[in-house]
Amino acid sequence: MKKRNSLNRTRLLRALIVVAFAVLAISSVRAADLRPNIILIMADDMGFSDIGCYGSEIQTPNLDRLAREGLRFTQFYNNAKCTITRASLLSGMYPRNIGDDIPRDIPTIAETMRAAGYQTGMSGKWHLGNTSPQRPIDRGFDEYYGLMDGAVNYFNPAQRDPGFKGGKVRTFGHNDQLIHSFPTNFYTTDFFAAHTSETIQRFAKTGRPFFIHLAFNSPHYPLHAWPEDIAKYRGKYKMGWEELRRQRHARQLAMGLLDPKWKLSPTDSKSYDWAKANQDWEDLRMATYAAMVDRMDQNIGKVLKTIKDLGIEDNTVVMFLSDNGGCTEEPGGRNPSQQPGIVSTYTAVGPAWGWAQNTPFRRYKSWVNEGGVSTPFIVRWPGHVKPGSMTGQMGHIIDVLPTCLELANGKPLKEINGAKTQPLEGRSLAPIFLGQQRPQAAELCWEWAGNCAIRRGQWKLVWDTLNKAKKWELYDLVADRTELHDLSREKPEVVKELSIAYEKWAKKLGRKLPGQKDAADS
Asked: How far, in Å, CA of 517 to CA of 446, rounded?
């Protein structure tokens, strides 16, 4: 009898141990479930003022809703150029050397989040390498579908670039498989968002949190859009780029996005006279561009509906930004015989519209004045981020990875691919998300194609290659964020201090000194 009771007690003890371990396992899963999903959305070559909640006339109701339900930054920075922005955004580090990939000893955001227990997916434009070991699937993404190169035909990515763009066939793929043919209803923006929704649905079934990067190639040239979207904007740009800027600026002031003492910057040196332009064709160029932004917003709405339908909206952080300012490049020249919007043409908005897209700032893509490096940045996180809020605190794309890591309760990787890693150069934005003050970065630096800048506190030192004087310019961004009053002569000691700091940064990272140029990319 005693032996039987002892055996029963042993069995009971074993059962209790099993139950205890099961409870611990369930608790662990539940704890992991509480960590938020993260969706990081990026537009391509979209200007600071190109969406409704930053002053645009373009219809972007879904992004506007994100702003109403979340937080808008008024001073968030990118790197002014496609590849180097992507390298920094996905690594939490400044770009190294030319910046057209992420070195193997620097972990990507996908490698870092995967190590923290997240599922990782990406849809869209990668532009950081199209062969092993630098494809998305090699750099930490569990799932990838999209464009591994730069600009591409939206309706048929298998179509060669025109001769003036080198006649390339761009690399398009799904995980490690290349895609060479596309259905008749194909349009990159639509298919990138559809793949994102499919990935979310699959990831949500596992119960584990996910990180997804949706990188649209819209509204980067070539100007391609569906006819019904273009029709919504046809004729609305007959006012010209100067009046467009005035109207956007007025809306920005009314929204409180700008300090009224920052005056609207004057006409850019690359712009031209609206009165002498082919106004109908110019209207069509900008209407097509607007249609591309509109279509992107429609598809963002579909992704947002997916997380709502799955019941995970309240536990999902959504972030949105652009990789650089509006683009003034005009591949193929200004040719009114080329109809924007259709599969057989390769057109762009050109220098006047591209400059206007960055209202109220100076310059555009590839330049490091505020028009080139300023981006909308919106974050929605229900229950954590105050709805309808706005912040003037500075943020930079190198801050995104450490932010995601903090939200995931993860730690930076100490080594990757057998190499010891360097400390992250970005800092978490989470305190700002939660309405707190975050200590400002000691300094921020930029460089592309000999355009150089450093910001420290109120001061920004800029080397602008369009300035024929070939000298550093100094601006007080608290008083003059539109960079209209060069104070370099009045403050030579500040110029000297900041130029020394910039050169130290550039030499450390293999970036260029003033006047030295990088190879261009698209």
From this structure: 13
